[in-house]
Specification:
This protein is mainly α. The chain has 14 helices and no strands. The two termini are 23 Å apart.
């Protein structure tokens, strides 16, 4: 997706289903807990379990096997998120537009994790991981669309901060479950149980925006499919927001996807590499949590988004460059701490910025799904880029140098967004 043309703001929010009173702390807490469950279902496998399965099934080709599995799964994610977001926009269930997809999504994601637990071949691993990506993206699309449904713009930085907390806590809990559960099978089972249980309070709260049947537009395949293309010439700010998120997430995916192999092959970590990944993830979480909510609150109070996103991108770039040039355990620790500082602010404020440039209110789920392609596509491209760079074009120094350049480009291009200060 490219972006260009003249600046324009989002279309006024008309025609959207009405919610009740503004969402309070209990709803935000339940939403965030459900988000933790989704991230556990993703990152327990991504941080450790898939890498260990690849190593066990194809020890001589572990990097390429991991690249294949994660790449195919991310391709599924890239399609699933906007499609399920669009379907949730059109859902007329009595409990609301989003809740059915959250409930069904976490159930399907748990089923995919059980397939992975039983997998004894690369093919079965691919099938299981694709099911996880398909189902959890249905849940994630509905959860993120619920925020602009329920939360006024002046509080979206705060809620974006708590969603950032859910992301980092989910990554940390997923990594911890994968590490301490007692093996790959037990790790998948633990992640599956947590993913389902974490969504229960949100589903039982039954706070959602219903859509009347007579308000749902007629379904036509051509119109439905055409709606996924948001012309950047008509909505340039949306285009630039998409591009900058893509660059930031590509940098982050490259930085984290090969962390286990980075510790074993570049750092020559003396201890258990699984525990090393867990320690780095925990340190990253510590600093991220120290900035994610505060960054969102300060952005809300100042009414400004772009400066926070730009400076956080520069900090992310600095962290990846540390990984490139300081390939020791101490260097990895410092880089993880710095990365958390930058990514905390970025996670909260960029989400608020994105909700401010959505083209229409009635298509929030679909439009946020298109934005979330910028989260999924880097997972497809990261292994495609990383494997040859590590093997043939400079190793981990070149890989993390590239990650730093991508984050820097994303930080600079945020300036092209005109309708958001």
């Amino acid at each position: 997706m490219t972006a260009g043309g003249t600046a324009s703001g989002p279309v006024p929010e008309t025609g959207t289903p009405k919610a009740g009173a503004p969402a309070g702390g209990r709803w935000v807490g339940a939403l965030s807990l459900a988000g933790v469950g989704v991230w556990v279902g993703w990152f327990g496998p991504l941080q450790l379990l898939l890498a260990r399965q690849a190593e066990a099934l194809t020890p001589d080709h572990k990097a390429s096997t991991l690249a294949l599995v994660t790449g195919v799964g991310a391709a599924v994610s890239m399609v699933a998120n906007p499609v399920f977001g669009a379907l949730s926009d059109r859902t007329t269930a009595s409990v609301g537009r989003r809740i059915p997809w959250v409930a069904g999504g976490v159930a399907g994601g748990a089923a995919g994790l059980l397939v992975l637990a039983a997998a004894r071949s690369v093919t079965t691993v691919i099938v299981g991981w694709c099911l996880v990506q398909l189902a959890l993206n249905a849940a994630f699309a509905a959860l993120t669309a619920a925020v602009p449904d329920q939360v006024p713009p002046r509080r979206r930085g705060l809620v974006g901060g708590w969603l950032g907390v859910s992301q980092v806590v989910g990554i940390l809990v997923g990594t911890a479950l994968a590490t301490v559960a007692g093996g790959v099978v037990a790790g998948y089972l633990a992640c599956a149980v947590f993913t389902v249980v974490a969504a229960v309070p949100y589903v039982l709260m039954r706070r959602d925006t219903p859509l009347a049947r007579d308000a749902r537009p007629d379904f036509r395949w051509r119109t439905f499919l055409a709606g996924f293309w948001i012309d950047p010439r008509r909505h340039p700010d949306f285009g630039w927001a998409w591009l900058t998120r893509f660059l930031m997430n590509l940098s982050y995916s490259i930085s984290t996807m090969y962390l286990l192999y980075y510790l074993t092959d570049a750092v020559r970590y003396d201890g258990d590499a699984d525990n090393g990944v867990l320690i780095l993830t925990a340190l990253n979480a510590l600093t991220l949590l120290s900035t994610v909510v505060i960054g969102g609150i300060r952005s809300d109070r100042s009414g400004r988004r772009k400066p926070y996103v730009m400076w956080s991108g520069l900090v992310i770039s600095a962290a990846t460059l540390l990984l490139a040039v300081w390939q020791t355990w101490t260097g990895a620790v410092v880089a993880s701490l710095v990365l958390g500082l930058g990514f905390g602010v970025y996670t909260a404020v960029d989400f608020a910025l994105l909700t401010d440039v959505l083209p229409t209110a009635e298509d929030r789920g679909k439009d946020l799904g298109v934005i979330n392609i910028a989260n999924a596509l880097p997972q497809v491209l990261a292994p495609v880029i990383a494997a040859p760079v590590v093997t043939h074009f400079g190793g981990y120094t070149a890989l993390y140098g590239l990650a730093g350049a991508l984050a820097l480009a994303g930080s600079v291009l945020v300036r092209r967004i005109r309708s958001v200060p």
